[in-house]
TrEMBL record:
Coiled-coil residues: 127-154
InterPro entries: DnaJ_C3_Co-chaperones, TPR-like_helical_dom_sf, TPR_rpt
Region described as Disordered: spans on this chain: 1-21
Each TPR repeat, start to end: 91-124
Protein's recorded name: DNJC3 protein
GO terms for cellular component: endoplasmic reticulum
GO biological process per UniProt: protein folding in endoplasmic reticulum
Keywords: Coiled coil, Disulfide bond, Repeat, TPR repeat
Domain of life of the source: Eukaryota
Organism: Calonectris borealis (Cory's shearwater)
Entry GO MF terms: misfolded protein binding; protein-folding chaperone binding
């Protein structure tokens, strides 16, 4: 604007300057909304800014934080994945992605993401601590599933009992473990026990198809055809 461009360039520069001022204003409002814990408003404002500033890692991390606070962790993952690519050595993003997957019960993806963090910094304390936890849980689950494939149901039940002890804080792992124990009991023809455990799973997740099928098998063993 200051270098006496042609009218056409001046118009374009003026438009960009106006847009820039508007985005700075929206940015201030978004930060203010975040500080006031109005995460829904912050997300809405950040949506507008990110439609233009697509490659801004900090803004994506901020929107991810808002999604987490709003109880929408799945939406946070895509922003954090973008931030991990946009910013070099972004261990924090990989750590957060791994934690979200872990909380959602996806231990395999959690393990994959925390490994990415440790590739960037093998001494990262939080990532290393999470890695040890996820690796241990992952190994137990894989081992239990192998025992099920071999038809060693009693051993598999014991292994899934260990899973609930390894991760007592995240309820989804206890539910998944119970669901597989219900399957093992049903397959092992321990019908009364299977019915009890499957029912516990179905009280938590009434539409759990696996538990419904396994309980049905147990009912058949007991000649409870109506049930």
């Amino acid at each position: 604007l200051k270098s006496n461009p042609s009218n056409n360039e001046e118009k374009e520069a003026q438009t960009q300057l106006t847009k820039s001022d508007e985005l700075q204003r929206l940015h201030s409002q978004a930060l203010s909304a975040y500080q006031q814990e109005d995460y829904e408003a912050a997300i809405s404002l950040l949506d507008e800014i990110l439609a233009v500033c697509v490659w801004d890692a900090e803004l994506r991390e901020l929107r991810a934080e808002c999604y987490i606070k709003e109880g929408e962790p799945s939406k946070a993952i895509s922003d954090l994945k973008a931030a991990a690519k946009l910013k070099n050595d972004n261990t924090e993003a990989f750590y957060k992605i791994s934690r979200i997957y872990y909380q959602l019960g996806d231990h395999e993806l959690s393990l994959s993401e925390v490994r990415e963090c440790l590739k960037l910094d093998q001494d990262h304390k939080q990532c290393f601590s999470l890695y040890k936890q996820v690796k241990k849980l992952n190994k137990q689950i894989e081992s239990a599933e192998e025992l099920i494939r071999e038809g060693r149901y009693e051993d598999a039940i014991n292994k899934y009992d260990s899973v609930t002890k390894t991760e007592p804080e995240v309820p989804i792992y206890a539910t998944r473990a119970k669901e597989r124990i219900c399957h093992c009991l049903s397959k092992n023809q321990q019908a009364p026990e299977a019915i009890k455990v499957c029912t516990e799973v179905l009280q938590l997740e009434p539409t759990n198809v696996n538990a419904l099928k396994d309980r049905a098998e147990a009912y058949l063993l007991e000649d409870l055809y109506e049930e």
